[in-house]
Amino acid sequence: MTLPAQSRLPLPLALALLALLAACAPEPPAEAPPTPVEAPPPPERPDPPVDQAALRRERAESARAATARAEAAAASPASRNMRDYLAGVEQALIARGRLRIDSGDEIALTPEKLTDTFIEVALYDEYVREGGKLVSRPTPAPLRRWQQPVLLRLEFGDSVAPDQRARDRAEIAGFAARLAGISGHPVAVTGGAGNVAVLILNEDERRAVGPRLAALVPGIPPGDIAALRDLAPQNYCTVFAYSNGNSPVYAQAVALIRAELPPRLRRSCIHEELAQGMGLANDSPRARPSIFNDNEEFAYLTRHDELLLQILYDARLRPGMTEAEARPIVLQIARELLETEA
């Protein structure tokens, strides 16, 4: 609806005109006060009853439709092949004594060993950029971590069925709370905008993820999009963390987890990528007992890894520190942590 235009006067002038009009108007005759109207209040009308049975039917139908979409999306040849491949990988690793789910307490830790592992895992990058591509080569890097709260936004491909989404969400929320308790830094799953996108996608969905990545991380290097889109089969999951400019403080991250993963590898990926996204960016063959080791000996975050996270977020360290600056402080923290456990 369009309203007719009204002239507008500067406020002081408008007030002056109103005063002038009031002074010129004849005084109106006194009127008798109006007779009060007495009427009963309108009757209360209860809200219409909620048909709980209809709501349950609607939810069940919605769940069935989502499950049907997931089954159709997961039935592609590429996704079926990847699911079979990963199931075989998990079985083979477990048969060889890998993907251990114990804490590895029989492996002795010393302050010096813990310090060396921290330096290798937190102060080296696993990959280096060369010609717009990512090349696997450990490279010295400054200490990096988050300063703002870490808010995890979960995004599932259509191939992930509702019941699996619920399990993944519960697993990630529980692990986020564990990371927060270990590090003392806020970490949580959010239903709104987050700074860490956790994408759980199957083969076909991952290959089409380029536009979504560009929207999630404006300015993301094309090489990173290619690395996530063309993830090699032996890479079950990955995480990319980003800073603004040359800052050593993380601002955004993207974690990608294959939707076809079987249970133990799936949970292992959640542990490793979310922990690495906190600032433990590298893997080391000397890290033991640890998930930050490519030999897949341990499936889940160990007490050793918890110590690494505690060191990383200790207030005596600061983002941007080099190995020379950080090492003596890390050694002191490691001595304190292990003495407390003794």
UniProtKB/TrEMBL annotation:
Biased composition (Pro residues): 26-43
Family matches, as InterPro entries: DUF2927
Superkingdom as given in the UniProt entry: Bacteria
Classification of source organism: Bacteria, Pseudomonadati, Pseudomonadota, Alphaproteobacteria, Rhodobacterales
Listed Low complexity bias regions: 63-79
Pfam family, one: DUF2927
Region called Disordered, residue ranges: 26-79
Record field: compositional bias (Basic and acidic residues): 44-62
Keyword Iron in annotation: no
Name of the protein in its database record: DUF2927 domain-containing protein
Keyword terms: Signal
Keyword Signal (UniProt): yes
Record's signal peptide: 1-32
